[in-house]
Amino acid sequence: MRFVFLGLPGAGKGTQARVLSERLGIPQVSTGDILREHVQEGTSLGIEARTYMDRGEYVPDALVVRMVEERLREPDASKGFILDGFPRTVPQALVLARALDAAETPLDAVVKFTISDAIAIRRITGRSTCPACKRTYHAVWSPPLAPGVCDFDGVALEKRSDEDELTVKRRLALYRQQTEPLETFYAERGLMHEVDAEAPAATVSERMLSSLVDVI
Ligand code: AP5
Fold first, then answer.
1. Is 126 exposed, middle or buried (0-12, 13-18, 19+ CB in 10 A)?
2. Are 133 and 152 in contact (CB under 8 A)?
3. Cβ atoms of residues 153 and 132 within 8 Å
4. Ligand 1 pocket: which residues have CB below 6 Å?
5. Cα of 163 to ligand 1 centre, how many Å?
């Protein structure tokens, strides 16, 4: 099974991709997480990507496409995958479509998680992330049991460098300009499933699973 998750920054793509990944036993492929690993390790890709990510801009298509192609060649992706944060531009979507068509492994569904800008800003500015397992928490809606520490592995939680309000607003504008056109792209291919994501995370998971009932 192969899925693409769309939605504004903070829509809950990562949160819901983890749920579907556990349910179906297929990997969540988050381009944001992979890029942040490169930044942390100081690779040449990470050094270049960081300048874009810190400003809330997109990393150039060629760099991201190469990175995703490599990730999808790994053995765990042969059963399927959930693309969380990719594609983000029409050129990225065209490359993905060509690669999947050539392998005769088309997408099964594209899920778009819908929230307002105001909720997106509150979710992101309140988020903290475990650098080890990538689980996210929210200061108000899903706080960790012990302040500042991941419930699962005890590692200190971190804030990302692109979570201040000004950068979030830039990311929202960029989504509208560069990523929203993908909704039409995938609707024309009959793949779009829209999920109202302005509800507690467990309710959004139920909505996602029922919208995919004919697919999974
Ligand atoms: P990326 O890491 O992909 O960021 P994003 O798409 O902007 O999405 P987020 O991770 O911010 O949000 P999310 O929708 O996953 O929400 P989450 O589940 O965490 O990308 C970062 C950067 O990398 C980009 O800006 C770009 O520079 C670069 N990049 C990545 N991919 C690229 C590409 N393909 N091309 C070019 N550049 C690329 O939830 C958010 C918060 O809300 C959490 O605290 C969570 O606990 C909480 N929450 C979640 N659901 C709920 C709920 N239902 N109710 C209450 N709280 C909730």
1. middle
2. yes
3. yes
4. 7, 9-15, 30-32, 35, 52-53, 56-59, 64, 85-86, 88, 92, 123-124, 127, 136-138, 141-142, 162, 171, 197, 199-201, 204
5. 10
Identify the helix (H) or strand (E) that includes residue 215. none
Residue listed under structure tokens 């520490």: 149
pLDDT digit string, tens, across residues 157-199? 999 999 999 999 999 999 999 999 999 999 999 999 999 999 9
Residue 57: closest CA among 83, 89, 29 = 89
C-alpha angle with apex 61: 59 to 67, nearest 5 degrees?
A: 85
Give 48-80 pLDDT, tens digit per residue: 999 999 999 999 999 999 999 999 999 999 999
- Across 92-167, the runs of DSSP E, i.e. the strands, are 109-114, 127-129, 136-138
Sole residue written with tokens 């990510």: 53
Q: Is 57 exposed, middle or buried (0-12, 13-18, 19+ CB in 10 A)?
A: middle
Task: Report helix, strand or coil for 52.
Answer: helix
Separation of CA 210 and ligand 1 centre (Å)? 22
Contact status, residue 64 vs residue 12, Cβ threshold 8 Å: no
- The pTM (predicted TM-score) of the whole model is 0.97
